[in-house]
């Protein structure tokens, strides 16, 4: 059973609950938000103004010690095979007029009639919520689906027109003054990391009745013109996206020559710091690595297919994958993301890359191994990209490289002794290992991975498909998800072929 309620501030609170066996019992309303990752921003404000979630039956607090935190389902979400043949007997519809669902993991961008909206949701076993928006009726129809089991995930179909202005930002982001962020970061004294466009600092901002830990990205002044374009990209893109595998933008500062972005704080650092730990005994578990690989893929599916405007990230690498409190993968740094119109698959203008993910820039590594890893990643993309427009398949290639790094817990390029030079380039070595039936060499000493050799081989095959020279041969990120989850069989991959790599190791 799926029940919903609307709180005073017109935020929808909704949840799935099991349908009573007699199919006639009353359903009580409980207040939570998203189905799998319930967020405070969606919860109800009590008289003391602190947001809280009341977890219903079959839900529990993510952190039992935090009564003001989020709720999670205690059941597995998915589709049962025997449900597909009798869907009309298993679903009921409840209509809530003038009610909106603020956020979603999935958005379908095309006009729908009310009946088509219902039919589309009824025909999808993963659909739990659909929203119908009509400019003529000026109303929103929410269809809450009552499912016979508690195995449901959130789904959304919504028509929305977004106006982008170079002089205004139409998002629900908080606008900070420079002085507020300077105080929040204690004078920008605690650096979290550096990127091509600026430095990220840790900070704490004051809300009405609480404090929130944040990451403040201060864009470089000497790149003001280009940083301004990145600034606008990030505001307009991240501010209108919401997915559990994306880092969320909370606010911004734009005054004079200063440009700053305020993100939610990710307490467990980057994927790079997790994977490339010098101590072999501290490798992340095989199970966690599999979860991270799937999380990153889901985030990219959202960017490529499901958000309001399609987004090519163009800079997918372990340094741009952050980890939240529960080690969920969160894709960050949309500064190089190039927006695509809904009827396009590629774009031609204005994209630059950082040393680490993009093709077509004549980098040559001649210093230490760390620098080599950064430079060569840019050149590992096929030479065809020198003349081919950047498109979503660039992210697929980069994901394939990251997947191999997750599997092996080593960088895509690594300094090796002369007798091990064949292992220096991870993509080449991985294909050789697969071809020779020796994928276990990629996880040498990792007993968890070695005990799951079938899954290991499948992941290596998926990665090889992703790094094919010809973008046409690469799967979409949605197909990657299907292969990772086992709903689509992974075919024998072709040889990637003619990957252009120019490097020297010193």
Shape: globular
CATH fold category name of the largest domain: Transferase(Phosphotransferase), domain 1
CATH architecture of the largest domain: Orthogonal Bundle
Tell me the helix content: 10-25%
Radius of gyration: 24 Å
Strand order of the largest sheet: 10-14-15-13-12-11
CATH H-level homologous superfamily name of the largest domain? Transferase(Phosphotransferase) domain 1
Oligomer: single chain
Strand content: 15-25%
Mean pLDDT: 69
CATH class of the largest domain, named Mainly Alpha
Q: Summarize the main sheet.
A: 6 strands, mixed
Uncertain segments are: 1-49, 80-85, 102-107, 135-168, 337-390, 499-506
Distance between the amino and carboxyl termini:
63 Å
SSE-based structural type = alpha+beta
Helical stretch count? Answer: 12
Count of the domains: 3
